[in-house]
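Q: Two folds, back to back.
A: First:
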Amino acid sequence: MKPAPSWIAFAPALFVVLWATGFVVARLSASHVEPLTFLSIRFPIAGALFAAIALYQRAIWPHARQALHAAVAGALLHGGYLGSIYWAVAHGMPAGVSALIVGLQPLMTAFLAAAIVGEKISSRQWFGLAIGILGVGLVVWPKLNFGNVTGITPFTTVLCIFGALSVSFGAVYQKRFGTGVHLASGGVWQYAGASLVVFIGAALGENFGFDGSFDAWFALGWSVIVLSLAAITLLMLLIRHGDVSRVSGLIYLVPAVAALMTYVFFGETLVPVQILGMAVCAGAVFIVTHRVARNSRRFRP
């Protein structure tokens, strides 16, 4: 194997920053295009780009059963996850708070994997989950509004939790049924499944509103090129060079980075108790992911 390029040392931190911009895009697009409509445009374009990559690389296309599994994984990983987050942000949920709730995804994935695969849940994981729930409570409770339909409400909070569960279940499903499929050709079917989910949602609850403004087009271009293409390609390179564990070690920083970005660009603020809750959640995810990363290094051949 060729030695890893020098820039790969900075790639995990770059990936975390790029991933955090996804919540900024959700906030930016909210005033210009309906959330599920936005994703109904984004996902097919991303799928077409992956199809072009698959054809260029002469990738092996999955057979019918593999394609179905990829579509289901995509419906969960992209459709259920982003559809819920974008809808919540469009209805007043601060993007930084949504990033925090989704940031507990590593904890949820560990428990879902244990339930599905039968792995034993360690006391460390139980402790991390309890700390994570406490942190979410500290962030959500000070601004939880039971009277309005927008903002940090019980419904938008539950929707963000649903999105985190969706991506967690999708990750476990992909691990169970999606291995062995080329990333580009399999990605085409993933985005096909995701497109179907958000298009049905948009058809049932939206008017396919898109104002054609610069912000709308910029958000769409950024989400397709930077998030759906560049960030995923960067993740594949990290996997190839064995540095994906460093991403796991930094993923707990995504909510803080997203909160800082939304403060700079949109003026979203957090009260001191919410900042404390964000730190508590970061600690909870670190407790679990640090243990996983340490074990992976210990048993590395």
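A: Second:
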Amino acid sequence: MRRKVLVIGHKNPDTDSICSAIAYANLKNQIAEDEHIPMRAGDISDETKFVLERFHVEAPDYIQDVGTQVKDIDIRRTEGVPDQISLKKAWNLMRDLNVATLPVTCQKRLDGLISVKDIATANMDIYDNRILSTAKTCYKNIIETLEGTMIVGDENDIVEEGKILIAASNPDTLETFIDPGDIIILSNRYESQLCAIEMNAGCIIVCTGAPVSITIRKLAKEKGCHIISTPYDTYIVSRLINQSTPICYFMRKDHLITFGTEDFTEDVKSVMAKVRHRDFPVLDLHGDYFGMISRRSLLDVQKKRIILVDHNEKSQAADGLETAEILEIIDHHRLGALETISPVFFRNQPVGCTATIVYQMYLENRIEIKPDIAGLLCSAIITDTLMFRSPTCTEEDRKAAETLAGIAGIQIREFAEELFHAGSNLKNKTPEEMLYQDFKTYSINGVSFAVGQNTFTNTEELRDAKGKLLTYLNTSFPRRDIDMLFIMLTNILDESTELLYYGEGAREVAESAMRVTANDDSLRLEGVVSRKKQLIPALMAILQES
């Protein structure tokens, strides 16, 4: 069976992160046996939406946490049973399925649980001879339990009243014990059968398969008395009959501990450590019963298998990465603090875009690049290199983009204008949406900081965004897990950046790193357009010194 491998970019993904994940998953599906699925770790920007719609490619599904979930383990698909089946039938099912717990369901909804312990307790503790009427037992259950036959009456009728009696006395004495609705266990004695029916018994159970006369049948029918014939003798019937009680009378239905298919196994382990049940039911996304798990199920947990693209730092990765199995990393950024349990395939090249590396890998594996994939890769290179203006851009990026543009049937300059316009249209976005559109976090020397970047094609849009972001930072910014925040507002056409800063010491760090004095709540950075090559290294150098 093909195992799934998730190909995923960084949080707050940009176009390169999304497009490279899709393209690399497509490549791996053609050269590897496993099923590779592109995923995303954040919302898709308007720029990326434009690219996906232009080339008719579906957006990857969202995943917030790549930790192991219940759906990743072996869930026992035990079928649910109705709450009216007998204790004996439930016991037989458990024996045949080799399970200790049965889920009780109605229209896929979990109503309760019945366990071996519950059945054993019922068999040992039932001394109430009215248990069948108290539990509203169906005559069909009695017939199944006693392997009998309904001679008179409807097997779907319910035992509404009465107690269970064994007709061991003579008819004269028996008359004083029988009440209306009672269930009488007896043999082939005609006088006892007649007495029970005349005293308005609800049912007579004739043992050892003894024949029932036509007269008795006729009288029973007139009196509304059921007749059941069983091959068992009186002793066996008296032992078995209570086992026809429906399980709804004994099942656990309150305060059930359930897990969802999306729950994380670390949380499941914590709950199981506190509760000593043998089995636990699992519900699906709709709240319907799905299956059963036990502590043993957690012994063979299959970690999610992951390929990281466009990042190699834990702070930028989806949550739960420490519990996943990283298979590969394809990136073009600096090496970050990320540890793996075993060796992985790691390809890191000093180019302007991860998509360029993916393009090279298509060529190396001699896999044809379809127009839609070519369009995605070309778009990623254009955006990441700011149409070759970024200092991170290399000749490899330029050549790859030109070749891919030819395959996709686009003109780079005209297409780039549409692409950047889609990405810089922030009029309808909130300041929070603008901030996290392309947002990355870093850490050095115990200092955590984040850098967001927005690109613009005209000064008016940049100025409007700057005003909204400054107001947001000074009044509503809630983030408390970072020490400093920097926001790059980059004008692609004139190749400059307005750098906003937030946090104690952020202004001083920015001024020292960029060697520019702040003016009016920001730094004007001429010729600075690259976060990766021009801003991050400078900030890192200052923070490392301090």
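Q: And?
A: The chain has 19 helices and 21 strands.
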